[in-house]
Specification:
Elements: H1 5-18, H2 24-34, H3 44-54, H4 57-72, H5 77-81, E1 83-86, E2 89-92, H6 103-116, E3 122-127, H7 133-141, E4 145-151, H8 154-167, E5 172-175, E6 187-192, H9 205-210, H10 224-236, E7 237-246, H11 252-259, E8 263-270, E9 276-283
Bound molecules: glutamine.
Glutamine binds next to loops.
GO molecular function: nucleic acid binding; peptide chain release factor N(5)-glutamine methyltransferase activity
Catalytic activity: L-glutaminyl-[peptide chain release factor] + S-adenosyl-L-methionine = N(5)-methyl-L-glutaminyl-[peptide chain release factor] + S-adenosyl-L-homocysteine + H(+)
Domain Methyltransferase small: 123-200
Length: 284
């Protein structure tokens, strides 16, 4: 006998919890299967309409079970649904690009606070922009900005282009290595979430097996890439310009050390779980 919608949602939840995942993820996956939002699942009429538009319940079931199996193999939920929520944005993501993390939302907040205090246009460069979550948040939340998103990975640029074209076409994409990007250019703000995880760190399976290593690992102590990003920020920023750079919880002191010569007002900020997560400074 064919399972009802409620029964297979319950089955999905059971499969996920048995494998150690949150049962709520079953709702995200089923909503995605039906082309609905998660909240829509609680509206029987909307569900009914979606099911009859698809017509064949077994197609829904098969797609849903396949997604559940992939999630149980630790594919990130956001790769399966194709979307990550970041601040007020829906960012398109998939294999090849880092899923934007909530801790970076706070970095954006601190950059916006600096930007608010400036009159007139503000030039912002996002180094290693990935999906574009940070760059697009700034561009949409602070309309007085001109934002350039620098990214070297062709796979990440595929997603970056999609997000820029869906969300804000004014963001300029520059395909370049950070070290050589924008020679001769000066800007007011640099934001960066560089790969900073120490090479030897054991990451959760979802991250280690599916997200791009190039966006995660920053050398033996994780500081090699952040140092390169800081030297580019030093080159790009006007005197009085603002830098916000995300880092590993163990790198607060090291980043301060790296910034001391060229920056004043160096502040270490904590993430939502009170771990040192990003540092801001003003270019001397
Ligand atoms: N914080 C990320 C993680 O959870 C790492 C992001 C990065 O290296 N920029 O793995």
């Amino acid at each position: 006998m064919e399972l009802t919608f409620k029964e297979f949602l319950r089955g999905g939840k059971e499969q996920l919890t048995a494998a150690g995942f949150a049962e709520l993820e079953a709702e995200h996956l089923l909503a995605h299967t039906l082309g609905l939002s998660r909240m829509d699942l609680h509206n029987p009429l909307t569900v009914e309409n979606a099911l009859s538009a698809i017509g064949d319940m077994s197609v829904v079931e098969e797609t849903f079970w396949k997604l559940l199996d992939r999630r149980c193999a630790h594919e990130p939920l956001q790769y399966l649904t194709g979307v990550a929520y970041f601040r007020h944005l829906e960012i398109k993501v998939g294999p090849g690009v880092l899923v934007p993390r909530p801790e970076s939302e706070l970095l954006v907040e601190s950059a916006l606070t600096y930007i608010e205090r400036i009159d007139g246009p503000v030039s912002v460069v996002d180094l290693g922009a990935g999906s574009g979550a940070l760059a697009l948040s700034i561009a949409t939340e602070a309309p007085n900005t001109h934002v350039i998103a620098v990214e070297k990975s062709a796979e990440a640029i595929y997603w970056l282009k999609k997000n820029v074209s869906f969300i804000d076409e004014k963001v300029r994409i520059l395909e370049s290595d950070v070290s050589t990007a924008l020679e001769g250019v000066k800007c007011d703000v640099v934001i960066a979430n560089p790969p900073y995880v120490p090479d030897s760190e054991e990451l959760p399976r979802d991250v280690k097996e599916h997200e791009p290593a190039v966006a995660l690992f920053g050398g033996s102590d994780g500081m090699k890439t952040p140092r390169l990003f800081v030297s580019t920020a030093v080159r790009l920023l006007k005197p009085g310009g603002f830098l916000a750079i995300e880092h590993h919880e163990s790198q607060g002191e090291k980043i301060t050390e790296v910034l001391t010569e060229d920056f004043t007002d160096i502040i270490l900020h904590k993430d939502l779980s009170s771990r040192p997560r990003f540092t801001t400074g003003i270019r001397r």
